[in-house]
Each structure stands twice: as C-alpha cells, then as structure tokens.
Specification:
It holds the Pfam family Peptidase_S9. It contains twelve helices and 35 strands. It has 635 residues and is of the alpha+beta class.
Amino acid sequence: MYKTLCCLLIISISQFTAASEFKWDDFAQLPIVEQPQISPDGTKIAAIYNTPDGASVIYSQFPTLDFSILAKLKLGRDRVDQVSWSGNRYIIISASYPQWLRGEFYRVSRLYAFDLETQQSRELTLRKFTKNSWYEYQTFTIVSNLKNDEDHILVSTYDDLDAGYSVFEVDLSNGKYEKIQNNEHNIHYWSADKNGVVRLGIERHKDDEKITRTIWYREKEGADLKKLYTRTLGEGITFNVIGVNDDGNKAYVLSDRETGKQSLWLFDIVSGKFEKLIYSNPDYDVENGLLNSQGELIGAYYSDDYLRKFYFDEKDSEQEKFLSKLLKSEHVYIVSRSQDKTKILFAKTEDNKPATYFYFDSTAKKAGIWVSEYPALNKRQFPHVQNFSFVTSDNVELHGYLTLPPNIKHPPLIVMPHGGPHSRDYKYFDPEIQYLATQGYAVLQVNFRGSEGFGTQFESSGYFEWGKKMQQDVYEAMDWVINSGKVSRGKACILGKSYGGYVALTASFQQPERFDCIISVSGISDLQELVEDDDNQGMYTGHIVNVSDEKAVKALADVSAINHINQIKSPILLIHGNKDTRVHYEQSEDFYDKAKRNKNIQYIEVENGTHFFDEQKSKQLYFEEVTKFLDTYLH
C-alpha cells in the first residue's frame, strides 16, 4: 500500500499550482483554513475559512474542497476561536468579540451550534441571562463535547446565584440549560471526563503578596469536590492536571519535579503521591496533553524546533511514522482523525515552505493534498531558517534562528524579539519573516531567558527581568550575529510585537545609537501603568514585579520608554489596534502624544484591530506601513 499511496501523492502534488508573481500583500494573508476537524464517522470536515471579507465556518464531505458555509462572522467584530464536533450532527462554534467595559476592551466568548440535519443554527445561551445588565459581558466556554451523547455538551458560564462560573448541560436540539455543577470554591476552570462527569475544578486566589492555585477533584459521580493540590505561584514544584484515567483514581499531571522540565507523570489520587514518570524530554518541557476528537487524552507533546508528539498507544505512533515516511519528512503530524482512525487529515511543515494539509483514507487506500495554508506562496523559493546558539556574558546558553536573504552579502538586520514574554519562537514557516527576507533583510529571532519550553529554571530566570537580563539577551544575540560576519555591522532595525514591542521601545532609549529604526506593534511603553491596572495584576504578578512592593513598582519607571523620550534618537513606528484586549492602545497613544513634538515618530491606530491583527484588512495595513517605514530608514 505504501508504494501505491506514494504514486497517488506524486500525481496530486504535480497538479498543485500557485501564482507565479508575488507582492507584499501575498504575504499579508491569514491562513486560508484553520482548525480542520474530521467528524467522528469520518464523512465530513469542518474548518475556519479566512477571506478578505472575514472568517466563515465551513464544512465539506471528506476529503473534498466542495465547501458549504455554515456561518459568516461580522467583519470588524467577531473572531472564531474554536470549531468542534458534537457527534456527527452538530458543529459547535466558539466565537469571541471585544466588548467595552470600564474604559477598556475585554474579550467575550459566545457559543453557537449548527445542526447539519435541519441546516439551522442557534446561539447557546440561557434566556434568563439575557435579562441581566451584565449579559453583554458574559462569556460561555465549552467544558466537554460529550463522547457518548451527541445531543448535549457541557458549558461553563457565570451564574449570579453562585457568584462564579458554574457548569450546565446544554441540549443542542433546543438550547435548554440544566445546571449540573455549582461553584462553591471560586473555581474559574472546569474539566470533565469522557462520560460527562465534572472531575476537576481550578480555583485561583490572590492576596496582596501571592497568588495560589488550588485543584479540586471529584472521585466519582455524585461525590463532593475535595482538594487535590494547592500551589503558590513561583513556589515548589509545578502541578497541572491534564486528565484522569477511566477509573478516576489516577491523574495525568504535568510537573517539573525531579527533572526540572515539565514532564508527564501519573499521580495516584487516593494516596496523594506521584506513582511514576510517563514521559520526559531532557531538553524541552512537555507542553500539554494530546486530545482526540472525542476529548480523550491520548498522549502529550513538546516542541524542539517543531511540534513533537508522544502517544500512549504505540499504534498511534506507528500511524504518524507511516505518514512521515509517505511524505519523506520528519515534520509531519496528524491534525484530525475519524473515531476509527481510518480517515486522517495531516500536515507537513517546513521552515521555508508553507504548511500543506494532506488527507489519507486507509479504507479506500487513497491519499492526496487537501489544501495549502498559504496557496499564493506555494511556488516561491524561500531561504532556509538557520539555527544558532551562543553563550551570554553571564554564562547562559541561548538558542535562536537566523533567516538570511539569498545572494546578498552583509544584509541589513532586523531584530525580532518574540511576544509573551513567556512564549517562544519556533522554526515553522512564517510569512512575515520570509517576506522581510525577500526584501533583502536578515531576520534574527532569539529565545531569550524567560522563554517557555526550555525548563522551569530558564523561564523563571526571566521573572522581574523586564528591561534587564531579558533585554540584554537580545542585545547580545545581535552582537553574536554581527560578529559572525553574516550581516551588516552598521544597519539594523528592531521590530517587536506585544512584549517584543516593549523590547523595541526599551532599546530605543537604552541603546539609542544601536538601531536605525524602531518598530513597536501592540507594544508597552509604561510598565507602571500596566501593572497598576487591577485587571492585569493576576496576569503579571510574579512575572514583572511584586505589586505589593511599592518601591519596586515605582522602579519600573527606569525601564519604561515613556519616561526616557529625550534619550531616543532613532525614528519610531507605532502600530496598535484600537480593540486590543491584551495591551490597551493607550500604551502607544500616550507615548506618541508625549514624543511627537520633538521626535521622528509615526503612530498608526488600526480601526477594529485586535492584539493579533486577526483580520486580513488589519494585517495588510500592518505589512504596508512596515514596508514603507523600512524602505525609508533601513534600505
């Protein structure tokens, strides 16, 4: 069968064509499809479909591209966050939008069900909630798509009777809600097993000096919740339950105990002790559990340069290895499967080519290309992304990526620190990185200390280091690449988004002679303002500053660009969406207002722009403005 499928794939690939001419707006696209999901019976595919007119939810017969549109979102407002199946009849859509409250935008999530039998959709909301004054701010999230009951799902939403988030069973045929779980412990996150029994709840408590996280557990249906584990943020070993076994007496836990890396452990709930280590990687954290389309835990995953999966069932591993062999690539992973595992969507990823989705039907012995993530870029030749590593001046080993434009000696350098900061860069194809390379720029990405995925010690070494060691790592990575002789010694720009935007603005005053230009996108100019916002304190406590330490909070002024405008020499471009729910656009607007009289600065406020510019219009405006700015100050 392997040889037959190889022939089929060669035929499919030979028919896979794309445009021969490329402009900047070819790169300023959203992925044409996202989150493709096969129905449990393997007959259909549901996915998010992106167009210039906004996102739609679509479905087709497996494995065709003959799509039908189920729902089209309101351009400039809605975003599809998740698409999933409830049995073979219902497609559940989780969408969100920014809602103005107390001077800021907050993201509100809503749920919808589309019935393939009746071809009708309904919003999944409880009528009594719509009468509340706070309904427009109410969020609904899926707790479980019940494996053995396609007509119901479990939903968590705020209930004023509990003054907290409770769990309801929702009838998809009529939208009726039935409360099945009260909230007695200020729990903000719930998890259920495959049979729909609410097993876990996570409580988060904040006082003046610390944040504690308590995991509550139900041993069996009808039993009371009991405390399983309590941890103070930043203290002791990590403990994150990602699932329970079928008997409900063992938990799968991610913890850094013994290994220093997030590892997968089996925890005995009855004895309260760790039973055994299931999987660990010596260099990288296990990021989370792998769930199948029925919500069952089937393994875990980590990332080196690319996603790597560990399956509990060796047959699952063998199936993924077979698909890798089929495409002759190590970078192949299963995206979605039917319940019997005979119908599969899988993806091939590379550093210099857009990801491509393939289908495989083991019953019909057919395989082929389904769709490319970025069809307009398929035939373009892009440079490979190079790995690098170096040791900092204080003896910390850092890793990163360098993308060089072809046939250009000593190109201008763009330093691109990632956001988060507790996230990381990967080696996947990135349209923006490759676009900059086509324009003749080298692009440097470094996983500075504080980046996630490299162990607890490495990530926590970035706590309280905004504008300090994390910032210095970026400068030293730049020194390393310049000293390597691969890029220009005299032409460089720094471009960052979110936390990366903070790094860019901080570099503008800490090292004003180093960069020819500064680009901050959705960036932070005033750390003190950020952490003094009550709504941000839970998110940033332990990462930026201890908010109860008044002296430390005031010291944030020393590493906030808004207080050092007179030291800035380079031209600055600020871009910020006015519906950013993560970093308020006033962080850019206030900085611009203070700097515009005496500095070379531009501010682009993106109408309806979110933190991630997740509409094509916003993304294209971003690419256009960055292109013009770089053409002026770096070419």
